[in-house]
Design brief:
six-stranded mixed β-sheet, 2 domains, alpha/beta, 264 residues, 11 helices, Lyase 2-enoyl-coa Hydratase, Chain  A, domain 2, four-stranded mixed β-sheet, 2-enoyl-CoA Hydratase, Chain A, domain 1
Length: 264
């Protein structure tokens, strides 16, 4: 990626994996207006041109916080109109993350509160450090989750658990997040990023059209009836029959070699 951002640190890993760090460690990587705008710009850009990328890993700078949620220092003193305008941008940012055509993995390296927890729930899946903590504390501040928290969290952990988390505002551990389905693995802090990148590299080595179509089939199919989901799956499947990568995959299998997928 050629762009540079004020609140995000981007690092190209190998040829096809991008590491994105939320980069406000002095504020526990809390999300201010600029970070929201930059995340929105980055992820909306992927919908137009992925630039050869095949997977993205999102993490936080430092070892204490993934994202502490919305920056309440910036929000202090906002008028109702200013608050609503900022939140409309956060909503657009969240939709861009959910709509990212590339596999999007999280390496939750510390506290993921409020919006940080909501972003975690919006990713395709996430790994967490042992010291990570999660919470949706909005009801303790006179608001409620408004960046997908009531929807994505419930889809990840189930309705009854989501109600307990959101209505109490109580924090929960990385182990609980794994047991409940919010994260897939819990790892020591020193192993977290490399393990997440290893998974991203494994995904990036697979046929990119296949990966993108499978991601869409799972995500959108779960919002349909089973019959409609099965029909959508076949539409996604048929997209790959005429691709060069499908032919390459079969050739490589029969020639007992690693396939060279080109995304075509």
């Amino acid at each position: 990626m050629s762009k540079s951002y004020e609140t995000l640190a981007l690092e190209r890993i190998d040829d096809h994996v991008l590491l994105v760090r939320l980069n406000r460690p002095q504020a526990a990587n809390a999300m201010n207006t600029r970070m929201g705008e930059e995340l929105m710009d980055l992820f909306e850009g992927f919908q137009l041109d992925a630039g050869g990328l095949r997977a993205v890993v999102l993490t936080g700078a430092g070892e204490k916080a993934f994202c502490a949620g919305g920056d309440l220092k910036e929000r202090h003193g906002m008028t109702d109109g200013q608050w609503l305008r900022q939140h409309a941008m956060f909503e657009r940012m969240l939709r861009a993350i959910v709509a990212c055509p590339l596999p999007l993995l999280g390496a939750v390296n510390g506290a993921a509160y409020g919006g940080g927890c909501e972003v975690t729930a919006a990713l395709d899946f996430a790994y967490a450090a042992e010291n990570a903590r999660f919470a949706l504390t909005e009801v303790t501040l006179g608001i409620m989750p408004g960046a997908g928290g009531t929807q994505n969290l419930a889809r990840a952990v189930g309705e009854r658990r989501a109600k307990e988390i959101i209505l109490t505002g109580l924090p929960f551990s990385a182990q609980e997040a794994r047991d409940w389905g919010l994260v897939n693995r819990v790892l020591p802090q020193g192993e977290l990023l490399e393990a997440t990148l290893a998974t991203a590299r494994r995904i990036a080595a697979n046929a990119p059209i296949s990966v993108r179509q499978a991601k869409q089939s799972i995500h959108r199919g779960l919002q349909m009836s089973l019959a409609d989901g099965l029909a959508f799956e076949i539409e996604c499947y048929n997209r790959m029959v005429s691709t060069q990568d499908r032919h390459e995959g079969v050739r490589a299998f029969n020639e007992k070699r690693k396939p060279d997928f080109r995304g075509a």
